[in-house]
Amino acid sequence: MSQPAWKSFGPAPTPKPFRLALIQMLGSKDKAYNLKHARELIFKATAGDGKKSDLVVLPECFNSPYGVTHFPEFAESINFDPEKKYDIITSPSETVQALSTAAKEAGIWLIGGSMPERDGNKLYNTATVYNPSGELVTIHRKVHLFDIDIPGKITFKESESLTGGSKLTYFDANFGRIGLGICYDIRFPEQAIIAAHQGCIAMIYPSAFNMTTGPLHWELLQRARAVDNQMYVSMCSPARDMSADYHAWGHSTIIDPYGIVVATIDENEGVVYGDIDPQKIADMRAGIPVRSQKRYDIYPNLVESAVTGK
Ligand SMILES: NC(=O)CCC(=O)C(=O)O
Fold first, then answer.
1. Is the ipTM of this structure higher than 0.95?
2. Which residues, other chains included, contact 262 with Cβ-Cβ below 8 Å and sequence gap of 6+?
């Protein structure tokens, strides 16, 4: 590998406490309805349960049914240009325009779940991020495609219509640096390890686990990534719709750096709220200092090799 798939982001902003809200939304096959409903829920989540939220998150493929046959029909061009990253005027995407407007009117940071994205002849599963001025700050294309086959239970092959992204993604908010992944990405610990070393205080994954792997691994994977990296980890799911082709597990969750569940929900539509406290990260890291106890003399330093490309 000569060219690293990500670069060092330099010093992270000083972390501050913030309020996180996960929208567990019940979607449909109607994109216009999904955009309208997402907007209503963004305002509800912003108002919070007695305390205003700072960062609001939508689920994976919130504007489309989750299925390889639906992605081509629902895909939109985003035209994200990292050099002109705050320019949404050039984005032809109705979803980007709708989310940008909602983030600006609500005055919040918004992780706009994910959406099927078209770029040339390729399709991606892409998350978009907006700041409180409604600017499109970054996008994350799902890196690890959900290709699994558990006979008699579930077979799903995102690669039948999607291409995997080729970079890791972070964004800097006024409350700290946040790492992004999408659903199946959480099964690949390297992504979260590198994010933590880059100064991220939380990994957030718009997601849609299913009825087979949800009960087995949904909470376990989040707690594992949180404890390994002594950071907050959160997954935001759609609500379960038994009339849809894909039955989402639900249970949107926020985990703290000790691996403790801060907040969660069942399979129904709703909003999950949690306070992110950087002091907890500092306390966990001081008390159990695994980060300074790594034995790079006997195994490779993943972060260093990711930076140098060697
Ligand atoms: N949408 C997804 O990537 C699903 C991932 C999943 O269910 C898993 O078990 O992993």
1. yes
2. 232, 254, 255, 256, 274, 275
Per-residue pLDDT of 147-197, as tens digits, reads 999 999 999 999 999 999 999 999 999 999 999 999 999 999 999 999 999
Are residues 36 and 214 in contact, defined by beta-carbon separation less than 8 angstroms?
no
pLDDT digits (tens, 9 = 90+) for 239-281: 999 999 999 999 999 999 999 999 999 999 999 999 999 999 9
Question: What is the C-alpha separation between 94 and 57, in angstroms, rounded?
Answer: 18
Residue 60 annotated in active site? yes
Q: Which residues pair with 254 in a beta bridge?
A: 234, 263
Question: Strand, helix or coil at 236?
Answer: strand
Say if ligand 1 is within 6 A of residue 117 CB: no
Which residue among the candidates 61, 183, 200, 236 is catalytic per the annotation? 183
Q: Known catalytic residue: 142?
A: yes
Cβ atoms 175, 17 nearer than 8 A: yes
If you write DSSP's letter for every residue of 148-160 in order, what string do you get? EEETTTEEEEGGG
CATH number for domain 18-308, candidates 3.60.110.10, 2.40.50.140, 3.30.499.10, 1.10.1270.20: 3.60.110.10
Residue 183 Cβ inside 6 Å of ligand 1? The answer reads yes
Q: Which tens digits make up the pLDDT trace of 18-51? A: 999 999 999 999 999 999 999 999 999 999 988 9
Burial letters for 79-103: b for 16+ Cβ neighbours within 10 Å, e otherwise?
bbeeeeeeebeebebebbbbbbebb
Residue 87, pLDDT > 80, answer: no
In angstroms, what CA-CA distances link 139 with 14, 123, 171, 216? 23, 14, 9, 29
200 part of the active site: no
pTM score of the predicted model: 0.96
Pairing of strands 200-206, 232-236: parallel
